Amino acid sequence: MAEAVASAEQDAVGLQKAFREYEGALAVDNSRRAATLAAVFMIGGWLMDRVVFPEHMWAFLLNRAICVILLGVVFLLLGRVSSLKASSRIGWAIPILPMASICVMIVQTGGGNSSYYGGLNLVLVGLSLLLRWSFMDSMLMVGSCFLAYSLSVMVAPETLHLQTFANNCFFLLVTSVFVVAGSY
């Protein structure tokens, strides 16, 4: 009986190791795919900027173009790394860059009153579906998202409407719970 338990434990350890190796092999491809999609949707969002905030469209185009260029650098760097640890560190830039870009736009469009908070939800969903990070990495990214959003709200010159801000925070929280729960 003890031998069967020991054998089952060894099988479980072997299975976990095989799964980590499989995930590691996919990590760089998933990260490059995520960087590409983030770049496409960041620059594509300019069409929305033209409709929703035409007075900011040229500044937002510059903001988005800088983000896309930096995501392109990340994409290229991911193609050159050989270790999983290095690709993981570089991969952190994939959600951080769009998150920072979106937060700059949030400041310029009303802070806590801005509808652009929805972009942060998209970053979190993309993180969850494409990057398949660990629970701890997901927690850190969610924390980073809330910190960046909070800073955006604090530095925005507009008066905060508590109802809108509460609405935005609620939806960010719900999305964050799904992201973290999905990575557990």
Biggest pleated sheet: none
Total beta-strand segments:
0
Distance between the termini: 32 Å
Low-confidence stretches: none
Order of helices and strands: HHHHHHHH
Helix content: over 70%
Q: Which outline best applies?
A: globular
Multimer state:
single chain
Q: What's the overall average pLDDT, rounded?
A: 91
Q: What fraction strand?
A: under 5%
Number of domains: 1
Describe this entry's structure for a reader:
The two termini are 32 Å apart. The protein is mainly α. Helix 5 (93-108) runs parallel beside helix 7 (135-155), helix 6 (118-131) packs antiparallel against helix 7 and helix 7 runs antiparallel to helix 8 (162-183). The protein contains eight helices and no strands. It has one domain. It has helices at 2-44, 46-52, 57-78, 84-91, 93-108, 118-131, 135-155, 162-183. 83% of the residues lie in helices and 0% in strands.
Topology of helices and strands:
Layout: H1 2-44, H2 46-52, H3 57-78, H4 84-91, H5 93-108, H6 118-131, H7 135-155, H8 162-183
Helix pairs in contact: 1-3, 1-4, 1-6, 3-5, 5-6, 5-7, 6-7, 6-8, 7-8
Write a brief caption for the model.
The chain has eight helices and no strands. It has 184 residues and is mainly alpha-helical. It has one domain.
List keywords for this structure.
184 residues; mainly alpha
